[in-house]
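Page 47, continued from p. 46.
Same chain as before, 267 aa.
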Amino acid sequence: MNTQTMSEALPRSRPQADIGRLRDQLERLGLGFAAEHLAGAVTDAVKEDRGPASLLEALLSLELERREERRLRKALQLSGLPTGQTIANFDFAFQPSVERSRIETLSTCAWIRQKQNLLIQGPPGVGKTHLAVALGVKAVECGFSVAFYRLDELLHAMRKDQEVPPARLRRRKYMKPALLVIDEVGFEPFSREDASLFFRMVSHRYTRGSVCLTSNKSVREWPEMLAGDEVLATAILDRLLHASHVLNIRGGSYRLKDLDASLKSQG
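Result:
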């Protein structure tokens, strides 16, 4: 057997991957998290005798998880939603008028996909804001754009945009998100001008996006709240309540419960 024949008969060794070059290629593709953890993933794959497909799956899963974490963090920051209020830490036992199963159904965000609205009403301190914020967080997790405003903040923004043409108004933060959360409606009456601006916003978002609104006023009290204009109040409620969900919370105040517990501990 000549030298050429012998070299052809020998098994060819598998080429070794250049980790540095692979890391550079991942970074150039924008897969920074995968590139950062490449060496460790390769080491684990060798130890556990896993093949290249398993290694690739692990790296891509890591990249996707980190990208989702980054998306959530940025989206929550842009939304303006307060932090710390979630479905998990809502005290359903203290507020039995709130059905957990109904909140879990709302947490699927099907109502936002269908561009429906949600009205949460009840006296102060019963958890209206907590639920609105928690459902806003769920919406962000499901990939929807969200904007949170307290009513005074929203009215301030709308007054500034009073002369803005409709074409430009559509790009405003309170007009364009999939879900607009409006908190604390009803503590102060609307002026006639503010009521008209509120109607403009509701009319624009009607069938285009969802509104979640918290209020200490019942629907019957809205005409008085909206500058005594029953016609305007009816027009607003007609759009808000069409294909909507209404949560009526009846119960005690969380803040008073905490105050009572604090006073008892001091005594």
